[in-house]
Design brief:
By secondary structure, the chain is an alpha/beta fold. It folds into two domains: 134 residues, Rossmann fold (3-Layer(aba) Sandwich), CATH 3.40.50.1980; 116 residues, Nitrogenase molybdenum iron protein domain (Rossmann fold, 3-Layer(aba) Sandwich). It contains nine helices and 13 strands. The strands form four sheets. Strands 5-4-3-6-7 form a five-stranded parallel sheet, with helices on both faces. It has a four-stranded parallel sheet with strand order 11-8-12-13, sandwiched between helices. 38% of the residues are buried. Belongs to the bacterial solute-binding protein 8 family. Pfam families: Peripla_BP_2 (PF01497). Keywords: Signal. This is ABC transporter substrate-binding protein.
Length: 258
Amino acid sequence: MTLFDDLGEDVSLRRAPRRVVSLVPCLTEAVEATVPGAIVGATDYCTHPSDLDVARVGGSKYPKLDRVLELEPDLVLANSEENRPEDVERLRANGFPVWVMEAPATVPHALASLRRILTQALDAPEPDWLVEAEELWRETPPVHARAVVPVWRKPWVILGRDTFGGDVLRRLGVSIVYSSYEERYPRPSLDELRSWFADGAADLLVLPDEPYLFTDDDGPEAFPGVRYVLVSGRYLTWYGPSLVAGRRSLAELVGRLA
């Protein structure tokens, strides 16, 4: 059968895949939670489920493609933001189907895309966690905080427009001040970042623990006197089963700041 991934590319499958290589950590977790045992290869950053024991194929940006080919997957899962087009093309040129998920801009976008991967590409029943996540994240409460959300430093990289993490926060009542900027991940100066708080346009600094590991001692010191919260990067930026536990954890954490 021939399906089409999020970018409109053909994905030809002879049968429901049972040897899947995932180049995206959150997709690894979603597939393994829904079709246990289907994942045979994953990146070094695929840390969930914590007991996943499969071949490792390097990082998302620079996977060891020869290792992927050796695993002879029925399907490779990639992401338009995390994986390089040239790597996707090489895998396809070697005869392996690749499903590229478009980097989601919203929680509903992510869940709809996951539903297609799981129920169409993998021919699995709709998982309960996906239905629960849709219900948990359906509402958007009034804004009670305006945040700057760094995801990296040296240089500073900030959540901007049309980002999944930004929509997660929006559905918790937290708006991000860079949401109207042209870039999805602006790289402003530290002086510019501080000016948001000095002018009263921002009142919260949100610091995740991935991809950069912000801590109480690494990040807040650059913003003296600014209210901040440390959050799980997995709960903020992964789309999959973590959205269920993440909704409760983040809501409780952010709710204390309201």
